[in-house]
């Protein structure tokens, strides 16, 4: 009997990650004006996207952390959402003293809204490997399950930090490709090779331009949001953490833009407000299907619909704003930003049977097609089309047998930029309709995009705003 159970467990393990949960990194330092109502709204939106929990990024010395953590847990209990802490060792006034971490975990670890793994309170970090040995004490005092991001040391270095035997799993911050290349799974494979649970990062975009933090670079987003979920389906990591829910400064937010959380644009010295009128909500539309497929190996398509994203300014039209492709702060070779971020319109669709896609700019058709499509017809489709020198209104339409399934009248491509500075952030739009039939589908896609074998470095760009 006992042996049988172990064999069964082994089988389940081989087939499917047992944890299979998806979290979103949430910068608490951007939420100091949040009310319980706003917390609940954000949590409800995350639940609608099938996200399980927020990883609350907290910097040491941020005077609003205690208040906002209390409101967040109150809201989470109210809407049955989950939370855990990601102690940020770089983002505050200094590294976290172990006594303060123990206090937080003693206060919230047993809270019903605290995310648990194997019955233990789950805890993560942003960096802090120099303090690895603190966690021997923290773990013995709090019984936490410890999954830090110590990407600066690489997978093996993180595993062995503090003399080894400290981490229960590892999170990687390597969510973006390096240079003019598409994303690869090479960094993820170094973590999976360790045979401890892996938390895989998924991010849609990266652009930051904050003089106060000496940050001004981009990494390739482009088709990343689609490509990354396919990699997650293939690799089946124990958990996925989306980077991020609300890091506006690095343009990878998938949560709503909140006017009372944007002070960074002024205080961080951004030359233009690159967040205003740049919604990313459409990226969440793909998540229920993508996440269910990761968790169950298949998913039910609830809506049909299309999502599109692109930069509003062609790369050669305006000044770069000093933005580079890649960053010397990560020891990378620099590229012109327009070589890394392509002048393309990207689109993904969730469809129950095949359909055609079209993209027009200023009324002129660009001849868009799918680059990837669902094998059995039902599932995710994706593509991208170069727009050359076209400017004007962007319209993305999905049609089937001459009828419109969904259509987006999007932001214009505009060669005139505010203060002659290109906005390298993405504008995201979506349009969904409910399906007529609801079927289970498998994840398969065809026509793989040709992937270059990029050398993926550590990528841990991060905001420090407290
Ligand atoms: C959530 O908050 C509402 C309004 O304050 C209250 O009526 C409700 O009972 C709360 N629900 C839970 C489960 O705490
Ligand atoms: C990793 O990526 C390579 C190149 O795209 C692919 O051939 C391989 O199957 C991937 N590995 C896994 C385990 O999915
Ligand atoms: C919070 O609100 C105050 C008062 O309106 C505002 O000055 C501040 O910029 C807001 N904080 C954030 C993070 O936006
Ligand atoms: C979908 O996944 C569920 C849960 O793993 C499984 O029971 C079911 O057989 C799967 N269906 C298909 C069509 O693969
Ligand atoms: C481009 O931006 C300029 C300046 O903001 C504006 O006047 C113009 O209408 C815009 N063009 C398009 C096609 O949106
Ligand atoms: C897609 O377009 C082609 C060419 O116009 C047409 O033959 C085909 O029927 C269309 N497919 C669907 C599903 O509408
Ligand atoms: C969504 O697409 C439908 C079908 O084309 C269209 O009638 C509707 O106006 C679109 N909604 C938005 C918000 O663009």
The average pLDDT score comes to 90
The CATH class of the largest domain: Alpha Beta
- Gyration radius from CA atoms, angstroms: 22 Å
Give the helix/strand class: alpha/beta
Total domains, how many?
Answer: 2
Q: Classify the fold: give the CATH topology of the largest domain.
A: TIM Barrel
The CATH architecture designation of the largest domain is Alpha-Beta Barrel
Helix content: 10-25%
Low-confidence stretches: 1-17, 444-466
Strand fraction band? 25-35%
The geometry reads as globular
Measured between the Cα atoms of the first and last residue, the distance is 55 Å
Largest sheet: 9 strands, mixed
Ligand list: 2-acetamido-2-deoxy-beta-D-glucopyranose
Say how many strands there are.
22
CATH homology superfamily of the largest domain: Glycosidases
Q: Tally the helices: what do you get? A: 11
Compile the SSE list and pairings.
Layout: H1 2-15, E1 21-27, H2 36-48, E2 53-59, H3 65-79, E3 82-88, H4 98-108, E4 116-117, E5 120-126, H5 134-142, E6 145-146, H6 154-160, E7 170-171, H7 186-192, E8 198-202, E9 207-210, E10 215-218, H8 224-235, E11 239-242, H9 264-267, H10 287-296, E12 298-300, E13 303-310, E14 324-325, H11 337-340, E15 344-351, E16 356-361, E17 364-365, E18 379-386, E19 392-400, E20 403-413, E21 427-434, E22 440-442
Parallel strand pairs: 1-2, 1-11, 2-3, 3-5, 5-6, 7-8, 8-11, 10-14
Antiparallel strand pairs: 4-5, 9-10, 12-22, 13-15, 13-21, 15-18, 16-17, 16-19, 19-20
Helix pairs in contact: 2-3, 4-5, 8-10
The structure holds 2-acetamido-2-deoxy-beta-D-glucopyranose (NAG) (7 copies).
């Amino acid at each position: 009997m006992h042996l049988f159970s172990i064999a069964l467990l082994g089988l389940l393990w081989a087939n499917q990650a047992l944890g299979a949960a998806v979290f979103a990194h949430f910068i608490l330092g951007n939420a100091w004006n949040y009310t319980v109502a706003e917390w609940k709204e954000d949590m409800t939106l995350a639940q609608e996207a099938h996200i399980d929990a927020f990883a609350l990024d907290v910097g040491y010395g941020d005077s609003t952390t205690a208040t906002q953590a209390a409101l967040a847990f109150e809201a989470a209990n109210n809407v049955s959402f989950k939370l855990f802490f990601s102690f940020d060792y770089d983002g505050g006034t200094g590294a976290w003293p172990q006594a303060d971490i123990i206090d937080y975990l003693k206060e919230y670890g047993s809270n019903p809204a605290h995310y648990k793994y194997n019955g233990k309170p789950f805890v993560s970090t942003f960096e802090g490997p120099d303090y690895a040995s603190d966690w021997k004490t923290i773990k013995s005092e709090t019984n936490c399950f410890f999954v830090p991001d110590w990407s600066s040391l690489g997978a093996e270095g993180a595993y062995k930090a503090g003399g080894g035997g400290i981490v229960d799993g590892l999170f990687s911050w390597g969510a973006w490709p390096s240079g003019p290349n598409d994303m690869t799974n090479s960094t993820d494979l170094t973590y999976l090779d360790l045979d401890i649970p892996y938390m895989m990062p998924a991010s849609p975009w990266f652009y930051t331009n904050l003089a106060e933090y000496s940050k001004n670079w981009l990494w390739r987003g482009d088709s990343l949001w689609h490509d990354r979920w396919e990699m997650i389906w293939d690799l089946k990591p124990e958990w996925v953490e989306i980077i991020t829910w609300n890091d506006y400064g690095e343009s990878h937010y998938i949560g709503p833009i909140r006017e009372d959380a944007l002070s960074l644009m002024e205080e961080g010295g951004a030359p233009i407000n690159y967040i205003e009128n740049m919604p990313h909500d459409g990226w969440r539309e793909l998540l229920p299907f993508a996440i269910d497929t990761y968790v169950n190996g298949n998913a039910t398509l609830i809506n049909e619909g299309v999502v599109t994203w692109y930069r509003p300014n062609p790369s050669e039209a305006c000044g770069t704003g000093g933005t580079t492709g890649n960053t010397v702060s990560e020891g990378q070779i620099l590229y012109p930003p327009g070589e890394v971020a392509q002048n393309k319109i990207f689109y993904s669709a969730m469809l129950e049977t095949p359909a055609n896609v079209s993209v027009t700019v200023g009324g002129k058709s660009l001849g868009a097609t799918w680059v990837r499509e669902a094998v059995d017809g039902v599932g995710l489709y994706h593509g991208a089309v170069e727009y050359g020198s076209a400017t004007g209104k962007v319209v993305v339409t999905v049609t089937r047998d001459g009828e419109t399934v969904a259509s987006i009248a999007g932001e214009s491509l505009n060669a005139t930029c505010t203060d002659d500075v290109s906005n390298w952030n993405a504008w995201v739009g979506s349009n969904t309709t409910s399906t007529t039939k609801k079927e289970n589908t498998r994840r398969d896609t065809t026509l793989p995009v040709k992937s270059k074998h990029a050398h993926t470095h550590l990528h841990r760009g991060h905001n420090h705003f407290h």
